[in-house]
Amino acid sequence: MPTIGVKRDLLFEQLGQKYTDDEFQQLCFAFGLELDEVTTEKQMLTKEQGDVAAVADASEEIIYRIDIPANRYDLLCIEGLVTSLLVFQGKIKPPKFIKVEPAKRQVLKILPETAQIRPFAVAAVLRNITFNKNAYDSFIELQDKLHQNLCRKRSLVAIGTHDLDTVQGPFTYEARTPENIEFIPLNQTKKMNGLELMDFYTNHAQLKQYLPIIRDSPVYPIIYDANGVVLSLPPIINSDHSKITLQTRNVFIECTATDLTKAKIVLDTLVCMFSVHCDEKFTVEPCDVQQPDGTVVTYPQLEVRKTVISAEKANAYIGIQEEPAKIADMLTRMYLESTVEQGGSNITVQVPPTRHDVMHACDIYEDVAIAYGYNNIKKSLPAFMHIAKQFPLNKLTEQLREQVAQAGFTEAITFTLCSRDDIARKLNKSIDSIAAVHIANPKTLEFQVVRTTLLPGLLKTLVANRKMPLPLKLFEITDVVVADDDTEVGARNERRLCAVNCNKTAGFEVVHGLLDRVMQLLDVPWKSGNQKHGYYLQATDDPAYFPGRCASILLNGVTIGRIGVLHPTVLQAFELTTPCSAVEFNIEPFV
């Protein structure tokens, strides 16, 4: 979030009213800003430099440091901030920005070679502008804020501003080899070529960070006027010949870019903010930019977009009850001039060229909420949400983990991904018969599919701990993933409990006892006779288990898992030398 520093007295003068610090803080909060700090220029420099002697001449004038939302480029200077606050307070109407046709438009011609380095450029003219010291400083600071924020440290867009009376159009945007570029950089006296300039600014505190953007390129971007005078070497530095001073009356603005959309936003922001200093306020002179293919595009575009929102939706989303006319008035105060359509609740909103942050109806609803006042919105629970509570399946899982651990089993947490062999060949099965989710581009053979059973993970854990004294009793309660064409994503999760007993003898009674204990905890009876509800075992054949020592676990007649003694070939495939029995079943039916 960028922070701007504005002089308090100058700010109050332009607002036409004086405030206490608390009053101005409340105004900022109501507008969606935050007064971060009240300081002075001397205090700021002392904090940054730590050298009191170096700041002895600094001013004691009060500075307000204000946090600005990163997408509100129109508030990065005092001109935009003052205009927006006056509109918010209802003291002025949102200004209309007008393109004034000159006798002859300035032309910026883009040559094809620029495609190698920075292919886009836009331009505009501010005519009959009046700078004083504060306005000049603000103009320079806005460019710096935009460079650091929207322009991504000049990598996307580089701004050049020039005294139009010192140069002559039409202008050309070219790309030349560094040796063929010569000019006197801003605030210097010696003419340098491109290579000398790079060396000269290598240790410059501000500019050295921008050198890598073009340093290694075979050509550098350069802008000339009709007489071959250099205006700028973007994105590094302007020419000293066309520099702006307090006496400048006409400003030529050019922005070169690798992102045309960002360049348009930057140009719109600059001309809208500082057209307030023109003799005819809020007027801009357009320029023609001739593309490499010969087509001509006029900039700035200063597009006013119209969009329609629903007052009903605005009320519903924010949680208020306001008439459409009131909502339209609130939006107008937020610099979005709005009118209510006749005979309905729809509102037509005009989005000015200063509000490039408005991209969707939700951005407009947010401005309604800001204008209404967040503190004025009554707190209520959303109708479509509930008080947070633990997911029932997760709650059951946690309870079972504790009880299985108390039964003498140690919990293991294994990988969700495994190899195809782990769930197929090592369990005496064919991968084609298993509804597994396969990884399209596995990075290793160990992670080819999502596990369809917890058993391989536990057997691998046993192998890793086979030097531990027997018996080894492990369990895991977590998800497996099964391919399922009936689901939206083609797969579904299934929460299972798996336990393995490894000892000198298989110990089938151990895992059977664990199954009975879990069922007892779940209050599920053993089904016998004509009982409708309960669980029971039914002999079955499973290649992963020893013949005649495997059973299906059935709950109310539906198979939910397997229990039995593992087949010797399975143990051999997992490099185990001691017998094992296992139980694995789905716990979701018990939720």
From TrEMBL:
Keyword presence, Ribosomal protein: no
The protein's predominant localisation is cytoplasm
Could you state a single Gene Ontology molecular function term? ligase activity
Cell location: Cytoplasm
Q: What is the lineage of its organism?
A: Eukaryota, Metazoa, Ecdysozoa, Arthropoda, Hexapoda
UniProt enzyme class: ligase
* Name of the protein this chain belongs to: Phenylalanine--tRNA ligase beta subunit
* Superkingdom of the source species: Eukaryota
UniProt keyword list: Aminoacyl-tRNA synthetase, ATP-binding, Cytoplasm, Ligase, Magnesium, Metal-binding, Nucleotide-binding, Protein biosynthesis
Q: What is its EC number?
A: 6.1.1.20
Q: Which family does it belong to?
A: Belongs to the phenylalanyl-tRNA synthetase beta subunit family. Type 2 subfamily.
Q: Which Pfam families match?
A: B3_4, B5, PhetRS_B1, tRNA_synthFbeta
> What does the record give as cofactor?
Mg(2+)
B5 domain span:
302-379
